[in-house]
Specification:
36% of the residues lie in helices and 19% in strands. The strands form two sheets. The protein has a two-stranded parallel sheet. The chain is elongated, with a radius of gyration of 19 Å. Helix 1 links the parallel strand 1 and strand 2. By secondary structure, it is α+β, with helices and mostly antiparallel strands.
Length: 111
Amino acid sequence: MTCEGLRVVVVGGGVGGLAAGLLLTRNGAAVTIVDWRDDAAQGAGLLLQPNGLVVLRALSLEGPLERAGHRLDFTSLRGADGRPVSRLQMPDFGAGLDHVCASAAAACWTP
């Protein structure tokens, strides 16, 4: 399918909106992305879950993501006073959480 000659407005400059804009552009559409913030320099932190990482890899964005991002090996929960309450190891789900869930479901299923 080609989007040649199509003019598209994507509402939302989050990960989903940017991915949609990228895919539409790669297929020939002229894309405008609008977001409620008008100051892109404000910056933000994003925690990408395994399935989101799979999508970004499919968009050939793994290299730029690795260069600009930071891999978390653990996450911590802090109390109101800022002291650590718990620490949780972050598992590597590889190809995405859906594959882990499907494998677990298949392992539990008996015909």
